[in-house]
Amino acid sequence: MEILLVLIGMVVYFVPCLVGSRRNHANAMPIFILNLLLGWTFVGWVGALVWAMTDNVKADAPTAPGA
To answer: pLDDT digit string (tens) for 12-30?
Structure first.
């Protein structure tokens, strides 16, 4: 049970990284580093998430259907 909670916590902690990589963000690695080092603070986590959701995606990124 504890291992499951740790895994769920890690997934939630790295949501900004997952969003950035899923959206093919041009700054995916810096987002990961910010999330890794400052994600434990609420401000760092939210900052990484907002950064990951910006429109700075790579030009060859496929667009989402319906977008």
So the answer is: 999 999 999 999 999 999 9
Structure letter (DSSP) for residue 62? P
Average of per-residue pLDDT values in the chain:
90
| Cβ neighbours of 30 (radius 10 Å) | 13
For residue 34, with 0-12 CB atoms within 10 Å meaning exposed, 13-18 middle and 19 or more buried, which class applies?
A: buried
Angstrom distance (rounded) from CA 8 to CA 29: 22
Contacts of 16 (CB under 8 A, 6+ apart): 31, 34, 35, 39, 45, 48, 49, 51, 52
pTM comes to: 0.79
